[in-house]
Amino acid sequence: MDMTEKINTELVEQGKNKIMWARNKMPVIRNISERWKREQPLAGIRVAACLHVTSKTANLLITLKDGGAEVALCGSNPLSTQDDVVAALNEVYDVPTHAKRGEDKDSFYNRILTVLDLQPHITVDDGADLITTLHSQRKELLDSVLGGTEETTTGVTRLKAMAKDNYLKYPVIAVNDAMTKHMFDNRYGTGQSTIDGIMRATNYLLAGAHFVVVGYGWCGRGIAKDASGMGARVTVVEVDSVRALEAALDGFEVSSMDEAAEKADFIVTTTGNKNVVDKKHLDKINDGCILSNAGHFNVEINLQALEEMTKEQREVRPDVQEYSFKDGRKVYLIGEGRLVNLTAGEGHPADVMDMSFSNQALSVEYLAKEHEQLAKDVYPVPRHLDESIAKLKLKSMGMELEQLTDEQIDYLNSWEIGT
């Protein structure tokens, strides 16, 4: 055996171990897999997926395959792919996976086209790149597509815009909007994994540091909470008055980006919008500030302005680039401004991805059965599926729901009894 074969074998085994390690904490997905092995609800269905290729994602694809589907997977971000997971999916689990960490933009989109060669009946997306590529470059395949699912806030926003413009050609379920997705994945998953990514990349102390969170949606809430829990002095930047007020009452400072940049030791963007850290903020940013992004695309920090302001740059640690400004200040960017929790870490814990990917799996099953009843629009995850996932998760944690009595049900359905 030559060295290349030895390395590949080790990579496959490493990926297999990582996938099984995640599966230990994914009881809901395991439950769906066992049912699907018996029922085969996806027999004859081809599923194309564009997702972060991690150990948790692998368990979703294995589950879809257990349900009888023919599947193919590509990455949804050039720096979020785990090459050992790719190797294991291809060699151990017979899941065709087309992704490589660090690939360039052309290679990234070519792999999406390769996955679309499957001629899918259902698409599973994270960021909507698969769906938009299908609609723009492989239109001849659209007639055979039954439906799709979308995992992220950013992707759902794009798809709703497509539907508004009458450009969306098949129904899509907004998995991100399920309560058992965004309330847990976005908040607890993003919170923990973002802090983990920053710590792995920098090994700097958060306690006492000025930590700025840009955006106070579910992801921003989680990051702010976890940073505060580690002793950071957290400031929230928001454009929405209600969310800003919520952040203030949650105990955080609220300020403009201009003011926050001047004292920030860490800045994390999580808005889904463009240039929320712009040139005017970089002009006054605190010397030594660590910049990172937890939004889906690398557009939240104005990278072009950062390059133009820089007289010298170098990699100072894995996944950390130092930018030296012409006035002597330095700032540090983690993971090229891409998702910090996946470029510098392993992504969300399996415990929360269990719920997110269970939503994906059950939504795929729902589309396979009910697609004829759905118009070309964006739909929420059916409430009964959302609730079933919550119940299965609680049961796996050894917890039990209280039950309403008949008297209580009658009372809640009546109006006669008052003060």
From TrEMBL:
Annotated Gene Ontology cellular component terms: cytosol
Domain S-adenosyl-L-homocysteine hydrolase NAD binding residues, every copy: 186-347
Binding site for NAD(+): 152-154, 186, 215-222, 238, 273, 294-296, 341, 348
Biological pathway: Amino-acid biosynthesis; L-homocysteine biosynthesis; L-homocysteine from S-adenosyl-L-homocysteine: step 1/1
Cofactor binding remark: Binds 1 NAD(+) per subunit.
Record CDD domains: SAHH
Positions annotated to bind substrate: T54, D126, E151, K181, D185
One GO biological process term: one-carbon metabolic process
Cofactor: NAD(+)
Function field: May play a key role in the regulation of the intracellular concentration of adenosylhomocysteine.
Name of the protein in question: Adenosylhomocysteinase
Source species: Natranaerobius thermophilus (strain ATCC BAA-1301 / DSM 18059 / JW/NM-WN-LF)
Lineage: Bacteria, Bacillati, Bacillota, Clostridia, Natranaerobiales
